[in-house]
């Protein structure tokens, strides 16, 4: 198989569509190295891009040069940073009067497509509430939430259900696997419920990346905690959601299993083009992210790019030092 054919099949596996008649482009550049090509692909028009800014192989596999489509700015690791989810003046209040609790207090934030973003903060800071509002699991008291171009905060419950089923993936601390189903049946359950066909090629990529090929016929009770969470990760990714929300995904795992799951979440972004938002209290987990957001008292108080566990610890210590 030629490099161009391999890269094309990889692009097809991650669900990229060809749109070559556009005058401009805001597509991401995906590293297709896993499929045998070292040059990144523009996800908008599927042109493989060389270091000098010119495409060297087109989507049809012809050996001819094509100009890199306009509008692509090479950012971090050759990717653009378009917004996958955002919140504007987001507020969430539980209760009323003297017993009211302001979980979110005017949060403004944009989350980049094709990145792993971690949300951190002390207990009661609003990090889980923010994720639940972004994911359509909870309704904000006021403000606007947009996910993949859809205004989630004003959706009816029926539309929210459809969004959560088809456009959003979830990974929870407690795995939430169905005990009577096999690993494979758990993975494909969201597609089965939505009555959508399973893309076997994409399923095979996800299963192979997670190392689950020899565990697909096992029930959850026959899997370790780390294996169960990897099944939960596969379930979240198999439908190709616009964004995956992970709520303390390694909270019940030991350090070795945690590293496996976190490593996969990072690879799902870097290699499969996924967007992931993760709530965590662990600086080591946050170190796998491209960006870390810090909340305190329902407000966004800081962020780090390309964090290390040490930098995260230092930021948390500085937040404690200034808290009343």
Question: Notable features of this structure?
Answer:
alpha/beta; four-stranded antiparallel sheet; 324 residues; six-stranded mixed sheet; 2 domains; 30% helix; globular; 24% strand; disordered N terminus; 15 strands; Rossmann fold
Q: How many domain units?
A: 2
How many helical stretches? Answer: 9
Mean pLDDT: 77
Using DSSP, what is the number of strands? 15
* Fourth-tier CATH superfamily name of the largest domain: P-loop containing nucleotide triphosphate hydrolases
User: How would a textbook summarize the main sheet?
Assistant: 6 strands, mixed
- Alpha carbon gyration radius: 20 Å
The coarse overall form would be globular
Helix content: 25-40%
CATH class annotation of the largest domain:
Alpha Beta
Structural class: alpha/beta
Fold-level CATH name of the largest domain: Rossmann fold
Instruction: Name the beta content range.
Output: 15-25%
Residue windows where pLDDT falls under 50 for at least 5 positions: 1-81
Euclidean distance between termini CA atoms: 63 Å
Strand order of the largest sheet: 11-12-13-8-14-15
- The CATH architecture name of the largest domain reads 3-Layer(aba) Sandwich
Q: Give the H and E element order.
A: HEEEEEEEEHEEHEHHHEHEHEEH
In short:
The strands form 4 sheets. Strands 11-12-13-8-14-15 form a 6-stranded mixed beta sheet, with helices on both faces. Strands 7-6-9-10 form a 4-stranded antiparallel beta sheet, covered by helices on one side. Strands 3-4-5 form a 3-stranded antiparallel beta sheet, with no helix packed on it. The protein has 324 residues and is of the alpha/beta class.
């Amino acid at each position: 198989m030629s490099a161009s054919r391999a890269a094309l099949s990889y692009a097809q596996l991650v669900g990229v569509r060809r749109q070559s008649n556009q005058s401009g482009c805001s597509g991401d550049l995906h590293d297709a190295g896993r499929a045998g090509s070292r040059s990144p692909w523009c996800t908008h028009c599927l042109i493989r891009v060389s270091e000098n800014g010119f495409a060297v192989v087109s989507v049809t596999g012809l050996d001819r040069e094509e100009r890199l489509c306009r509008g692509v700015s090479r950012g971090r690791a050759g990717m653009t940073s378009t917004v996958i989810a955002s919140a504007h003046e987001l507020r969430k209040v539980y209760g009323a009067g003297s017993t009211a609790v302001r979980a979110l207090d005017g949060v403004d934030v944009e989350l980049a497509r094709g990145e792993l973003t971690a949300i951190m903060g002390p207990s009661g800071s609003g990090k889980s509430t923010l994720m639940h509002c972004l994911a359509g699991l909870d309704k904000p008291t006021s403000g606007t939430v947009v996910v993949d171009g859809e205004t989630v905060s004003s959706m009816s419950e029926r539309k929210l259900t459809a969004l959560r089923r088809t456009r959003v993936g979830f990974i929870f601390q407690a795995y939430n696997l169905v005990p009577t189903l096999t690993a494979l049946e758990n993975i494909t359950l969201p597609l089965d419920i939505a009555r959508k066909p399973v893309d076997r090629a994409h399923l095979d990529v996800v299963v192979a990346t997670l190392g689950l090929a020899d565990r697909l016929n096992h029930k959850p009770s026959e899997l370790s905690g780390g294996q169960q969470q990897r099944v939960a990760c596969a379930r979240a990714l198999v439908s190709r959601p616009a964004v995956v929300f992970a709520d303390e995904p390694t909270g019940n795992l030991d350090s070795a299993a945690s590293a496996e799951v976190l490593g996969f979440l990072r690879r799902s972004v870097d290699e499969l083009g996924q967007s992931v938002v993760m709530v965590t209290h662990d600086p080591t987990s946050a170190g796998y992210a491209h960006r870390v957001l810090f909340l305190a008292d329902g407000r966004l108080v800081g962020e780090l790019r390309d964090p290390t566990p040490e930098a995260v610890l230092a930021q948390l210590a500085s937040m404690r030092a200034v808290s009343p």
